[in-house]
Design the sequence.
């Protein structure tokens, strides 16, 4: 909710799609540089304590954002600076929180990861959809304040969680390199991580340009933006139901492949949509494909990573999933400024479709590697 409200505020005040690209860039670039190292930290320190700290920091950041907005005259420096601060928090939060889930899961590891992945990725679609309506009803500042207050419930919930003793690694040099080496040599980790990297760079930055589609292309309001992202939310919900009905286990690589192809095809449809109704249909496909790819990739990586390596693997996943986004947002923002939002989204989507088709060629090898890793873990 906060991310979309902030993007709408920036575009409303300065009407600059390139500035939207900078906003997305600064909000995510710390994840690119720090998340892999932060994943190593999550393998060494108590994860619950780390997650409590990062969630408290996110609450403060949202409160400051609400304060400068409700004062009535936010500056570019304030909004971009606070976006960068949230990126710093997320760089440490994402690998720690994902790894802490596994500490709590116990014998229900794969089911818990699949369910958590569905929730995390689903809210990345549903939250922005809700934001469109909230901004229209109460404004951006109160949207930020609502987000800040919501962390009270998050912190109380985390305080009362309990988990078994986590598997942690010892301090030492080369720990990050060990994680990179494992991810590159493990067939079931290397190719999904590369595909997520491409997705975050070429496909998912479309969210950054939603204010342009809603306001400039389809001549709507913040509510129109909410409707567009709400359509993606419907697709994400359908994708979540599909994943939960099938459950975790075999076939994850195939779900990643087909979900990726659907994501790219839906975005091509969005770039060519003659009216907002066609755009709604295209975004339903986008949401379904996004959920299928990301939740399946998350489940595949976490369920098969060695316990002492899980934080670093999730740090690399965060770098690919979130950390590549700023480069894509920056690039797409400038392409949109000079060639139009339709061209920016369509070109990125076409590139990603090609990458997804290449991924189809290695799915069988990934399934074999995943079965071997699963057998070794059980043994």
Sequence:
């Amino acid at each position: 909710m906060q991310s979309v409200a902030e993007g709408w505020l920036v575009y409303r005040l300065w009407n600059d799609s390139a500035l939207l690209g900078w906003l997305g860039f600064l909000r995510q670039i710390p994840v690119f540089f720090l998340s892999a190292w932060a994943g190593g930290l999550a393998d060494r320190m108590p994860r619950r304590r780390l997650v409590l700290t990062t969630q408290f920091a996110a609450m403060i950041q949202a409160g400051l954002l609400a304060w400068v907005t409700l004062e009535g005259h936010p500056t570019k420096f304030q909004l971009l600076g606070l976006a960068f601060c949230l990126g710093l928090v997320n760089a440490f939060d994402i690998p720690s929180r994902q790894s802490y889930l596994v500490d709590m899961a116990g014998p229900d590891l794969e089911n818990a990861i699949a369910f958590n992945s569905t929730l995390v990725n689903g809210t990345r679609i549903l939250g922005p959809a809700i934001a469109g309506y909230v901004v229209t009803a109460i404004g951006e500042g109160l949207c930020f304040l609502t987000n800040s207050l919501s962390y009270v419930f998050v912190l109380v919930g985390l305080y009362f969680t309990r988990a078994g003793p986590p598997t942690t690694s010892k301090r030492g040099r080369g720990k990050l390199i060990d994680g990179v080496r494992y991810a590159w040599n493990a067939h079931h980790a290397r190719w999904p991580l590369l595909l997520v990297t491409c997705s975050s760079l070429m496909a998912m930055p479309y969210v950054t340009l939603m204010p342009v589609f809603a306001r400039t292309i389809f001549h709507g309001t913040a509510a129109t933006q909410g409707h567009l992202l709400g359509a993606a939310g419907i697709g994400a919900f359908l994708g979540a139901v599909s994943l939960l009905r099938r459950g975790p286990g075999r076939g994850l690589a195939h779900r990643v492949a087909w979900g990726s192809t659907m994501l790219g095809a839906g975005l091509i449809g969005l770039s060519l949509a003659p009216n907002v109704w066609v755009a709604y249909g295209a975004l339903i496909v986008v949401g379904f494909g996004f959920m299928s790819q990301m939740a399946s990739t998350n489940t595949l990586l976490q369920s098969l990573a060695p316990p002492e390596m899980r934080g670093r693997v999730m740090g690399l996943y965060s770098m690919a999933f979130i950390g590549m986004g700023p480069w894509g947002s920056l690039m797409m923002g400038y392409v949109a400024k000079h060639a139009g939002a339709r061209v920016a989204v369509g070109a990125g989507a076409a590139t990603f479709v090609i990458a997804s088709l290449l991924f189809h060629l290695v799915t069988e090898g990934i399934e074999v590697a995943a079965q071997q890793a699963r057998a070794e873990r059980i043994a």
Observations:
- The chain has a mean pLDDT of 84.
